[in-house]
Amino acid sequence: MNSIPATALGLAEHGLPVLPLRADKRPFGLCPACEGLACGGRPNMATPGPCACPWPCHGWAAATTHPAVVGSPQWTAAWRRARTIGYHPGGAGVTVVDLDNPAAVDWARTNLPPTTTVSTTRGEHWIYRGTMRSVNAVRPGVDIKSTMSYARWLGPGTGTLAELPAAVRALAETKPAPVRPTPRAMTMPAPAGGGQCRHRSPAYLERGIAMAEQRITEASSGIHATVYRTFLAVLSAHGRCGCLTEAHIGRLFTAAQARGESLRHCTDAWSNAATALGM
């Protein structure tokens, strides 16, 4: 009997945001429209295409503590095929230092304060209380997983949970975010609302905006097209129910300008997306 669904439900009830993972550790697309990347999402399912899911269904943003979601028909089907449980460390208020080989573990034992540790197939997870941005390959065999990331649940581990030390935060400075020109202010008004918001919780909008920011930030090429498609997806999901504000739009414009887009290009992309949707 598959114990993963019951374990996941118990973890969610205790406040750990969970999501089902495949045998290759990738998340599922947790709605019919997004299964098998049909929505056009990224291969790791961290960023969706223009889906209209009733709740976030991709990667770390889908992780939830709501029993009604964890036990919903869409999630139940995924849990039956899941091979392990994932969770969102940042959503749980922790940071995972993923040590991927014995050499990395030896380095941590020498340089980092003791904390809760969990054995993995190749190394260990060192878990600290506190959050920070997630960064891969901060040194050989070491990844940091916290906000906007997910990790595998491998058990409660051993040892006492320690506060996130400066030594771990300093690791991220070896992989700083790209320096871009300072974004200019924008005044694009939010679409008029009036319709009933169909989103199941306030977290849906926040997660959707965060995922859109991530999609723009991580685009490896075709930034113009990425910005337009992302704006189109956001307006499709949030443009008619009245929950989208100028502050949310400003976050998207800031992310786009940080990747080199001009304010004019951002404004044009937003207007074109709105026109395409008949807004």
Fold and architecture overview:
- It is a single chain.
- This protein is α+β, with helices and mostly antiparallel strands.
- Helices cover 37% and strands 13% of the residues.
- It has ten helices and nine strands.
- Strands 3, 4, 5, 6, 7 and 9 form a six-stranded mixed sheet that branches.
- Helix 7 (202-217) runs antiparallel to helix 8, helix 7 runs parallel beside helix 9 (246-258) and helix 8 crosses helix 10 (263-276).
- It is globular and about 55 Å long.
Label this structure with key terms.
279 residues; alpha+beta; three-stranded antiparallel sheet; six-stranded mixed sheet
Provide a brief overview of the structure.
The chain has 279 residues and is α+β, with helices and mostly antiparallel strands. Helices cover 37% and strands 13% of the residues. Strand 4 (116-119) and strand 5 form a beta hairpin.
Number of helices: 10
- Tertiary shape: globular
Mean pLDDT: 81
Q: Count all strands and give the number.
A: 9
Q: Helicity, in percent?
A: 25-40%
The H-and-E topology, N to C, reads as HEHHHEEHEEEEEEHHHHH
- Which structural class best describes the helix and strand composition? alpha+beta
Indicate the low-confidence ranges by residue numbers: 176-188
Radius of gyration: 20 Å
- Strand composition percent: 5-15%
Distance between the termini: 50 Å
